[in-house]
Predict the 3D structure of the following.
Amino acid sequence: MADQVALIDYGAGNLHSVHNALKAAGCTDVAVTADPAVVRKAVRIVLPGVGSFGACANGLRAIDGMVDALDERVRRDGTPFLGICVGMQLLATRGLEHGATSGLGWIAGEVRAIEVTDPAIKVPHMGWNDVALAAHDRSAGLIEEGEAYFLHSYHFVPENGHDIAAMTDHGGGIVAAVAQDNIVGVQFHPEKSQSYGLSLLARFLEWKP
């Protein structure tokens, strides 16, 4: 795998684990980068994210030119993109964690707190849970059914159900993955999901949306 994957470093991602997982999945050229020029040359882009929506959005925007580079490479040029956890949530129009914060707006929708309707349901949603394909999965085979590791208190609610690639259940349906053309986001952590996660990353490295 000679193609360079840009793993975005904006101070809010589990970079070491994601980097190691990408290498384990077969990638020989991962650039952990905060340089928009590197992003503009990458053939695949991974945006991780750990923490609050607002902190992640602000951290990404604090890197001069990074959002523009992502827009150009992903939305204009069609470069395969994978968002992980909050990196997936940043695809939304806005997040409602600690007030409203604008997201990238690539997939219309909101990131809202997980509602607790049953005292037995714990938030954050933490641990292994099923990933079930949605009826309108448009990830072109990237997402498969299985079990993945989740850790989050907020969830992405897309405006258009056709953007939902997979669901999980935690006191009700929660979006596990979204997909639109060359853009895929997963709420779970592939780097913590053992063989299921490594298989997903391996497919992403070969993905031709």
